Amino acid sequence: MGSASKQSSQPTGKQPKPGSKSAQQADRRARIAELRAAEQRRERRNKFLTIGISAALVLAMIGGGSWLALDAKHKKDADAAAAKAPIDGVKTWDKLSRNHVQTEVKYDQTPPVGGDHNPVWATCMGTVYDQPVKNENAVHSLEHGAVWVTYNSKAGADDIKALSEKVKATPYSLMSPYPDEQGTITLSAWGTQLIVDSAQDPRIEKFFTKYVQGPQTQEPGASCSSGAM
């Protein structure tokens, strides 16, 4: 009988010896793979966070823009309603002449609210005068849609200060002393007038809202600057 041949029990592939150069390279490759996997996980996490934050910001901007639009609409609606609402104590005149004249004009109201007037308007871009202005120039300003605030010696310093600040903040308005007027404070627009006793009267704000470039304006958009000072 022939003797059976002995089969080798050694593995076919060679395993790197611990501590050898081959083993170190294998460990380095495994470590690099782990680091890349961790980096990929971090990138995915950051991407999701960025998308989430961006979506939240977009929603906030949309919400904020909607709120601003609604707020602007509410203000516009409120101003429109105020412009239509009657104001207690306001007197009106119609069929007022509008001729340009170089002479002095005798008006039926003190201060006047309309009628013939000088070709040059009084500058009325929130202008506060410390001396009386000529009626004929101021009436031309009213024609352009300005509100003219006047006061006599009964007005206190606080009243004058408050009215001055209001006028300075309001284009198409002017203010001047008017010693001969009957009321303490008078607000005039074209064909329209209101007399009050104090700058704290809430009707003043309503008068400005309704009549600065309001429906009574004879020449909407006409200049209120570069006039007579």
Brief descriptors of the model:
six-stranded mixed β-sheet, alpha/beta, rod-shaped, 229 residues, Glutaredoxin
Describe the structure.
There is one protein chain. The protein is α/β, with parallel strands linked by helices. It has two domains: 21-84; 91-211, 3-Layer(aba) Sandwich (Glutaredoxin). The protein is 41% helix and 11% strand. The protein has helices at residues 21-84, 135-143, 157-168, 203-211; strands at residues 91-92, 125-128, 147-151, 173-177, 185-189, 192-196. The protein has a six-stranded mixed sheet with strand order 1-6-5-3-4-2. Strand 5 (185-189) and strand 6 form a beta hairpin. Helix 1 packs across helix 4. The longest helix has 64 residues, at 21-84. The radius of gyration is 41 Å and the shape is rod-shaped. The protein starts with 20 loop residues before the first helix and ends in an 18-residue tail after the last helix. Mean pLDDT is 86; it is low at 1-9.
**Named CATH topology of the largest domain:** Glutaredoxin
Total strands: 6
Strand order of the largest sheet: 1-6-5-3-4-2
**CATH architectural grouping of the largest domain:** 3-Layer(aba) Sandwich
Mean pLDDT: 86
CATH class of the largest domain: Alpha Beta
Main sheet: strands, sense, barrel? 6 strands, mixed
Low-confidence stretches are 1-9
Give helix and strand order, one letter per element, not per position: HEEHEHEEEH
Radius of gyration from CA coordinates: 41 Å
Shape label: rod-shaped
- β-strand amount: 5-15%
Share of residues in helices: 40-55%
Distance between the first and last residues' Cα = 139 Å
